[in-house]
Specification:
Layout lengths: L3 E3 L2 E3 L7 H7 L2 E2 L3 E6 L3 E7 L9 E2 L13 E2 L8 E2 L5 H11 L12 H9 L14 H5 L6 H13 L2 E3 H7 L7 H14 L7 E2 L1 H10 L2 H5 L5 H11 L3 H12 L3 E3 L13 E5 L7 H10 L3 E3 L8 E4 L5 H8 L3 E3 L1 H7 L2
Parallel strand pairs: 9-11, 12-13, 12-14, 14-15
Antiparallel strand pairs: 1-2, 3-6, 4-5, 7-8, 10-11
Helix pairs in contact: 6-7
Length: about 350
Amino acid sequence: MKPTLVAGSIVSRATLHNEDEIRKKDIRIGDTVILQKAGDVIPEVVEVLKDLRTGQEKEFHYPKKCPVCYSEIIRKEGEAAYYCTNKSCYAVEKEGIIHFVSKKGFDIEGLGERVVNQFLDEGLIQDAADIFDLEPGDLLTLELFKEKRTQNLYASIQKAKEISLDRFLYALGIRYLGEQSSYDLGKFIVEKYKNSHHEMLTISDLLQIMKNLTLDEIKNVEGVGDKIGETLHQWFHEEKNEKFLEKLENLGVKLKTSSLTSTGSLAGKSFVLTGSLSTLTRDQAKALIKSKGGKVHSTVSKDTDYVIVGGSAGSKFKKAQELNIKTLTEEEFSAMVK
């Protein structure tokens, strides 16, 4: 959109949610719209000012073919998003690598989207595992990579070879498997096999464990359920994915389990965060809760134990009040986890 001031910041993009929401609000290319920040954070289109239409506005139509590989695009019944049907699509694989190295995944400092694009464009990597096979000399061939930057990135890559099991599962980019369900699955694996595995788990062990679990066993893991269970079961039985995991192990990637073994003072408690925190980032608060055995969910429900309320809290705070769920200020939360 034309950049405009909304609630204290200049906004040029807003969420349109999905095709159904675009159709419901009749949003067209060239429209003038009213904006707000949902929860005082995320810009969204409230409505279209149809009286200001000139007749030049155009309806948006989703493409029939993937704009990168030209394979068919589909939208499954009951789902909101469109997907490219080609599992080997360059764009799909690239986004998978970006997700793999992201802050919630392997969190490789200095390795963002732009550098991933450089790696791919220069043919240095074919998949995410190849990142761990890079040498300093490979990095020095890239534009803007001098000695210091090369050393820093190479050190970050080596450090990332040890990763917690839950973050590793999340980094794999298995469909529907989010942060909390990755944590729940990791905790289940550690608790079920804690007699044979201690501080570290090999990727071979993980693969064998997942292949030995039946579909029903996976679905019955707390926090997993039917939809995630089916994609997990399918993913760990695909030959391509097995080879990818073997490659990661051969390149020295190891899985830490210590963060999943502690019961902690928040064991069994469910948290939701809303608003902005002043002393912690969202990710830091989530990690703190999980380290003490608690769970973090994105939506408030009757099963939520606490809602942590920061500045400019939105609809989740109201929902907590409606359901009579205990709310915590940032100070109260800090006191709880001391």
